Amino acid sequence: MTEAEIEKENKEITRQYKELLRVSYLTLSDEDKKLIRSAFEIAVDAHKDQRRKSGEAYIFHPIAVARIVASEIGLDAVSIASALLHDVVEDTEYTLADIERMFGETVAKIVDGLTKIAHLKKDMNVSQQAENFRKMLLTLNDDVRVIIIKIADRYHNMLTMDSMPEHKQLKIASETLYIYAPLAHRIGLYNIKTELEDLSLKYTEPEVYNDIQSKIEETKEEQQEYIDSFSHTIQDSLDKEGLNYTIKGRMKSIFSIRRKMKVQNVPFDEIYDKFAIRIIYKSDKANEKFLAWKIYSVVTDNFTPNPVRLRDWISSPKSTGYEALHITVMGPDAKWVEVQIRSERMHEIAEKGYAAHFKYKHGEQKEQGIEIWLNRLQEALENANTNAVDFVEEFKLNLYSKEIFVFTPQGDLKSMPKGATSLDFAFHIHSEVGLKTRGTKVNGKLVPLNTILHSGDQVEVITSEKSKPNQSWLDYATTARARSKIKSSLREEKKEVAEDGKEILRRKLKSQKISFNEDTINKMVYHFKLKTSLDLFYRVATGSIDNTQIKDFASSYSNAFISFFKNRIRRTPSQENIDKEEITAKYDQLVFGKEEEKLKYKLSQCCNPIPGDDVFGFISVTEGIKVHTKNCPNAISLQSNYAYRIIQAKWIDSSQQEFTANVQLTGIDNIGIISDLTTIISQQMHVNMRSVNFSTDGGTFSGKISVVVKNNSILIKLINNLKKINGIDKVVRI
């Protein structure tokens, strides 16, 4: 570079630095400016020899990220300094210790968090990517600002991605849609979320993006005229009320127009609510709510509202802190228009999210909204034992979820994700309440645990010390928190059952004159094609490995010739984790539909599902049910074109499956006989009763009991135990 070019570049760096201080959202003290100045100087020095792919000096990137953090997100001086330094430790000679020495512990912690994220290798398979995402979120424990600066960094990368090769553009854009846009949405950074989505679309579907963008440009004047005609109609009425307000029109984002076109399956011209109108009014805090409803009444006096589309986030703000009144009205030319009514304070919170709360909450008070949000993230993160892909999927569900508001019996308002069930609510109150849930009441009526809640429901949880989760609860719960608690409870319970199984097996082997030792256990695990010794004990306890199978094992075990060959074969490395402290699922059966029926099926060739995959059934015309994985290349077209031929399907561990069986009893009517029956069924055998029906006649009784058992051997054992009760004459399965 020539002297003149270097001079020009330095001038530009200085100009951008001054601009950074000028546009900062929060007022910066002299101390703040000093901190930012020294961070800037270190960053300039550290990156002095580096250039970006586009050829410009690298320092422009940290300044741009700091500017997004300062003006668009509106964070404090510590965040601005950290943003300036975010690549220093990763890319230059400076160490974390240097940063801590110069800028203190907080900045060092944030920079360390950002460096950890940057170190996650970029070109990995999906599970590794998901694992990295989990690690990235764990840096939230250090400081939420890590994630916010990371979002700003990603935003600037997306803005300057033109000079990258196409495959990289595609990868970064997809990752942005997958992770960063939902995160920005959840933190309340709606503007940045929208920008990230639009920029991602620009690289993932460039033709679609350019097409919609050019159509928006073409209709700009027309749109402005429409907004003006809408405004003129209500301006006089608003002025009469003496309100101080502005009316702005806003085009929906390219991404959301694209989503609408896809969902409604219509072209651009047929999307009617392409823009929203915002009325932003000046108000002190005391009159905010009153004025919002006053404006609402003025708007609805002039235009007919759609009663189904009223959203009142002023009385109960979203958990991101968002407050506004949204109404959809029939505007001029019979077009639906969304009108958003918000005060200047609400508008700032909608634009800046988290940071605006600090401006309005002086002093050390941390804004509650972000606290609740962080606690929720924390809960999702606590669940370290699911695999990473499940974790990211569940986490995304929680990020994208719309909210409903439900009441406790005391009248407290609780925010839950849309689609949450009454069982989710029990875990939302407290995990101990969830684990002891016996039943739930919604609006005073007893309802099943999988009842989906709606805004305004009042929910009461009935608990019992004896209640505990069972496998079907996983079908009832939708939130990550409830599911993780249920899974860990079921794991613990299975371990207890396995302990009993260990003793049963010890006795059974003793009767077969086989010693109970590690070698025998390993051979049995191998013989039954299981993964761990706990699997073996558990399946013995539940009866899915019964006496006959154990005798078969014993006879093959004592046959020296067979065991010699088996030992030769057995020297395989597959048994390394036999002592793992877990009970694994053995996906050996496919079931279909809500009723989980066993039907004939074929596995499709296009995606070759294997046991344990997420799958669905497709009823073909000639070949019966064909099973596809949910991420099969043909899945989307099948599900959209032939939705009526799709049937739910899932792999299950047949040893976990529960069946209902009916048992008929006859005998002599004794006092306390019912009590003896129920004691044996529920306490000794750990079997659930579905229904009981008894009748007596002249000193004899007959009855029918419906029980839920895991397999036939448990049922036979139960029938034998019932026969031993004094007064019972006959017990048969019907």
Automatic annotation (TrEMBL):
Biological role: In eubacteria ppGpp (guanosine 3'-diphosphate 5'-diphosphate) is a mediator of the stringent response that coordinates a variety of cellular activities in response to changes in nutritional abundance.
Keyword Transferase annotated: yes
The keyword NADP is assigned to this record: no
Protein name: GTP pyrophosphokinase
Alphabetic keyword roster: Kinase, Transferase
NCBIfam families per UniProt: spoT_relA
Gene3D superfamilies to which the protein is assigned, alphabetical: 3.10.20.30, 3.30.70.260, Beta Polymerase, domain 2, Hypothetical protein af1432
Family affiliation: Belongs to the relA/spoT family.
Pfam families linked: ACT_4 (PF13291), HD_4 (PF13328), RelA_AH_RIS (PF19296), RelA_SpoT (PF04607), TGS (PF02824)
Species in which this protein is naturally found: Cellulophaga fucicola
GO cellular component, one term: plasma membrane
BP GO terms, sorted: guanosine tetraphosphate metabolic process
InterPro entries for the chain: ACT-like_dom_sf (IPR045865), ACT_dom (IPR002912), Beta-grasp_dom_sf (IPR012675), HD/PDEase_dom (IPR003607), NT_sf (IPR043519), RelA/Spo_fam (IPR004811), RelA/SpoT_AH_RIS (IPR045600), RelA_SpoT (IPR007685)
Gene Ontology molecular function: kinase activity
Domain TGS, chain residue ranges per copy: 402-463
